[in-house]
């Protein structure tokens, strides 16, 4: 199946720093989702985006639906230790029934 | 409200056996999807059910099947298990009006 290109693959940052990651697709998507996964658990939905150009925030997290509809971005401001985990993007080009997931960005926050 | 519940959490099977995994969605969610997660392949879509009907299927062999019951609970079955089927199997549900899936904690299947 289709796989989204997510970068960077991993990040090691100091607590308090801002984080940026992105996701690109060869196809146009109508919906973008961003998830965070902790070890041994299922992914947890962070932000959902439904319109090109849309910018949505959830606390310190901000995500954008790229205007080309082929990419999306996630920013985390003032990182804290509990931000550690793997972040996944997911996109869908149809009515939202089938989502394709990115390869994940592993985030490590150094206190 | 209760989240998505998957049972069992862990399972060990031998090659050639079959396995059934269960998923109880959030109350009111009629759409249930299944994903396979492995370190090498990431999250791969298996299938999606809505009102007891399979609406989408990913690129997996016919050994992988599923079904959904009238109460929206879903099961997936894998027959003739292979070593490569070892993975975390995730179930996710969503309401009709929203595309944001809520995932369960998964079933960790190990095939030996």
List keywords for this structure.
heterodimer; A: 111 residues; mainly beta; 6-stranded mixed sheet; 5-stranded antiparallel sheet; 11 strands; 0% helix; globular; B: 112 residues; 7-stranded mixed sheet; 4-stranded antiparallel sheet
In short:
Chain A is mostly beta strands and 111 residues long. Chain A has strands spanning 5-7, 10-14, 19-24, 31-37, 44-49, 55-58, 61-65, 71-76, 85-92, 100-101, 105-110. In chain A, strands 2, 4, 5, 9, 10 and 11 form a 6-stranded mixed beta sheet that branches.
Round the mean pLDDT of chain A to the nearest integer and report it: 92
Please give the share of residues in helix of chain B.
under 10%
- Amino-to-carboxy terminus distance of chain B: 37 Å
Characterize the quaternary organization of these chains: heterodimer
**pLDDT under 50 segments of chain B (min length 5)?**
none
What would the average pLDDT of chain B be, to the nearest integer?
93
- The helicity of chain A comes to under 10%
Q: Could you give a short account of the major beta sheet of chain A?
A: 6 strands, mixed
| Count, helices of chain B | 0
| CA-atom Rg of chain A in angstroms | 13 Å
SSE-based structural type of chain A: mainly beta
What's the overall geometry of chain B?
globular
Order of helices and strands of chain A: EEEEEEEEEEE
Record field, number of beta strands of chain A: 11
Strand content of chain A: over 45%
How would you classify the helix and strand content of chain B by structural class? Answer: mainly beta
Rg of chain B from C-alpha positions?
A: 13 Å
